[in-house]
Design goal:
CATH topology of the largest domain: Rossmann fold
CATH architecture of the largest domain: 3-Layer(aba) Sandwich
CATH class of the largest domain: Alpha Beta
Number of strands: 14
Radius of gyration: 23 Å
Shape: elongated
Strand order of the largest sheet: 6-7-8-3-9-10
Length: about 325
């Protein structure tokens, strides 16, 4: 297998899709609708969006598990639709489900994976031991996988996925269901792999995960890409550095208009339960101004706060709904 750079397409991308679509028979609308994206060698690329956005279907098409309805997908210079068997040799996949072999020990899950990819017994044993050390699982090598916690099992699946040095590592919601400590531990592993040149494509609905890990993020909803850029640039595109939250006691009608009219830099007000949210360009000394304007307008403020703009803020701005909806 060549290096990631040598496996890139003629225009320098290691993943490229052109109008990639998938419509399931039971669905009236496409799960993925004419998707066009390009991933560079050596980057962590994220697909961010709520459940049902089309992230997992996209990953499924790129990893040959889902047959596209139309369009083209290239991974490592190989056409995914025409040569799925060859693509499987180039990629590593960690799905949402635990796919470890329950009849094997922790070490055997790695060792036999090496044999499947044509590595000899000695080389497979060597790499297995190295990965057990790297992923802090050496003391568990001879244990049943049933003995592993959720975070440990996820680390083992990542170790297995990179065993054969794939051109691209695909991770579908890699930290879903993990506790915060296990999530951070996996983030460190992925950042370390990427620092050594591993290309990673991950799907996630955790905005913090995309912000922390990804060089670039494609925000998806209803099978389409709504925005694609670095997390930093996506947040800058808002024209706001913070989000104002105000909760009121009693009448709320007209309060959004009052804020946007009376306070410079307050935009995109939207109602939330018990009050409203708004984008803020200049949060300095804002809270006293809001309270003063509210009282002058006859509104009673129960609670008020400011938080940094996030990728979820970008998603709300694009769709008008929460990322969790």
């Amino acid at each position: 297998m060549g290096t990631p750079a040598s496996l890139a397409t003629s225009d320098g991308h290691i993943i490229k899709t052109v109008d990639l679509s998938k419509t399931y028979p039971e669905m009236d609308v496409p799960a993925v609708d004419r998707l066009c994206l390009e991933v560079l060698p050596g980057e962590i690329f994220g697909l961010l969006g709520p459940n049902g956005a089309g992230k997992t279907t996209t990953a499924g098409m790129l990893t040959t598990r889902v047959v596209p309805s139309s369009g083209q997908a290239i991974v490592g210079s190989v056409d995914v639709i025409r040569h799925p068997s060859l693509v499987k040799q180039l990629i590593g996949v960690v799905s949402q489900q635990n796919t470890l072999d329950r009849s094997l020990t922790v070490r055997e899950n790695l060792y036999y994976h090496g044999l499947l990819f044509g590595l000899g017994t000695r080389k497979s044993r060597q790499i297995s031991d190295e990965l057990l050390e790297k992923f802090h699982l050496a003391n568990w090598g001879d244990k049943s996988v049933f003995a592993l916690s959720g975070g440990m099992a996820q680390r083992l699946m990542v170790a297995r996925a990179i065993f054969h040095s794939p051109a691209v590592l695909f991770l579908d919601e890699p930290t879903a269901g993990l506790d915060p400590q296990s999530r951070l531990a996996l983030w460190e592993i992925l950042e370390d792999l990427n620092s050594k040149g591993q290309t990673i494509l991950l799907t996630t609905h955790y905005m913090e995960e995309a912000d922390q890990l990804c060089n670039r993020v494609a925000i998806m909803d209803h099978g389409k890409i709504l925005a694609l850029d670095s997390p930093e640039n996506l947040k800058k595109s808002l024209g706001a550095s913070a989000v104002l939250t105000v909760r009121l006691d009693g009448e709320k009608k007209g309060f959004a208009d009052l804020l946007e009219r009376e306070i410079d830099g307050v935009t995109n007000c939207r109602e939330i339960q018990g009050g409203l949210e708004a984008h803020v360009a200049s949060p300095e000394k804002l809270l006293p101004k809001v309270i003063s304007k509210a009282e002058a307008g006859g509104y009673s403020v129960l609670d008020i706060g400011l938080k940094e703009a996030t990728l979820e803020t970008v998603f709300i701005n694009l769709t008008g709904k929460d990322l969790r909806d």
